[in-house]
Structure formats: C-alpha cells, structure tokens
Description:
By secondary structure, this protein is an alpha/beta fold.
Amino acid sequence: MAIKKIGTQTVKFDSPPIITGTSSTVGPKEGEGPLSQYFDVILKDDLYGEKSWELAESKMLRETAKLAVENANRKLSDMEYMFSGDLLNQLMSASFAARDLAIPFFGLYGACSTMTQSLSLGAMIIDGGYADNLIALTSSHFSSAERQFRFPLEHGNQRKLTAQWTVTGAGAAVVSSLGDGPQIDYVTTGKVVDLGIKDINNMGAAMAPAAADTIVKHFEDTGLPTNYYDLILTGDLGQIGKEITEELVLDKGYNILKNYNDCGLLIFDNGAQDTHAGGSGCGCSATVFCGYIYKEMMKRNLNKILLISTGALMSVTSSQQGESIPGIAHAVSIINQGS
C-alpha cells in the first residue's frame, strides 16, 4: 500500500530527508549578475581549462559535486548514489562526471527540470531507507546547449526577444537521513503537458502550462494555502513564462502573485546583461537553489520554499520533424527544521 502518497501526484515523507550541504559553480556572465555573492565558484572563462565546452561542463559538474560533499562535512566515499543529468546527448556531462567520481549513478533526463527530479528521487531513496547519503546535481552550459539545440555560435544569429540565455552553471545538493539543514517534506511529480508551442525561441511559453499544472496539483494534494511558502520559485520560465504561469494558476483559483518568482529572472539583470526574457537551462534552478536559496535558508531569511524546476522535453530530432514542445515540472517542498 502506498502509505506515503497523498492526493494523486504528491508524496509526504515520514522521515523528511535533509539537505546537509550544497555547492554552486557559474560562468563569467552569471558571476556578473545580481546573485554573484551567493555562488561558491565563478569561472574566469567558460572553457574552464578544457578543450571543449562539453568537457568544461562535465568538469564543472564534477568539481561542484566534490565541493558540495565537502560543504556537507561528508566524504565522496559516503555518497551511496548520484542522481544527475544535463541537456547533452547521452547525458555526456553527468556520465563523464560519474565516471570520475566513481559513485553509483542514476542518469536522469528531465531537461531543465532535472534539479528537482534528482532531489525528488533522492529524497524517496533516503526516506525509503535505501541510503543515508547521496548527491543530487545537474548542469548546463550556454555554448554546449546552443551548439546542440540551436545554431553554431560562429553563426552570430540574432536572438528573438522571447529567447532566454542558457545558464552556464552547475548545482549540487547532498541529501542525508541525518544532519543539519533544510528538510524535504513533500515532492509533487509533474505530468507532461503540451499545448502545442513549437517555437524553440519561446521556451517560457512552452513550459508554463506544465509549471502551472504542478503548482495547482501540489496545493490540491497537500491542502496547504499558497501563503504557506515564503517563496514559490519556478526553474527557468523567464518573464514570459512567469506571467503565463501566474494567469494559469489564478484561473484555477490559486493566487501566487505575492510570493512567486522565477530563477530565470533572479540570476541575470535582463536589461543590463541583454538576456532578453531571462535565464534558462538545467543550471538555472540548480545554481539559484544551491547558491542563493540554500544560503538564505541557512540564515533563516527564508524558511519555507516550493521549488518547481521546469523542463522542455524536445530534442533536435523532434524540432526538425515539426513536433511541438512537451513541458514537465516537478515540485519539491523544502522547509527549515523547526519552522
């Protein structure tokens, strides 16, 4: 019997897993943004001493994992599982990092929803009694993502105003059965939602319906009021997707206008840094949570967070075949112990 299941899509943990440490690494552009003081490592160049952007992304993920484990006062040998993914074909960044870290590895593809997908599955493993310590992490890189999904950078094409800037960054969180830090109380697993958007330069509009669906389902399943959380934070919808999400959630009877924001709007100064509609990519919610949010929670400036990482599940092949862009969003409720 699924005794920990509430409603149709949510799990409530009996022994809430604890996020005992995090780490975040970002590229130079992200390091010039409004959250620069919260990141553990800011790269001086986006090649990170490697021969390619893809290898740089994998190195960024590997080194971020090591630092998160150190920040959690653990050792790599304590990590019983690694839940990770990225945007590249065959999870290149995560797989190569896992090869070097030698941690039992679950490779995940949730596109930009991968941070909360990894936290969700990791929390279930911990609460289920299958491990005491594991690491959940993900990454993205502007240059590797552009090369795979859009245009060669050398092309110098003009980006539409609806487009977002893929974050160069990696975030990692150590999830444990015991320790100090915020705990994971609920996870709400999203469904794939597709309302027919085909424009790869308007990811916010493609992902917003999935984000709204998961947010509404979380509150339906838990019965919590929307003001229960200090902050409801989507992963990388940007300005356009955020506005659509607000409207869709309000249409269902839930008002989140006072405590809702988006990681893609926090990580960059869109006007000054010319990022158009905001930030995107797996690394967007990963670095904002593992950097800014986690540190503010540890200071108790924030105590109750609902993090909803959002992903667009298209591929190069599906886009070339004229398919629409399916969206997915997973929600994780993260609460300071004693709040």
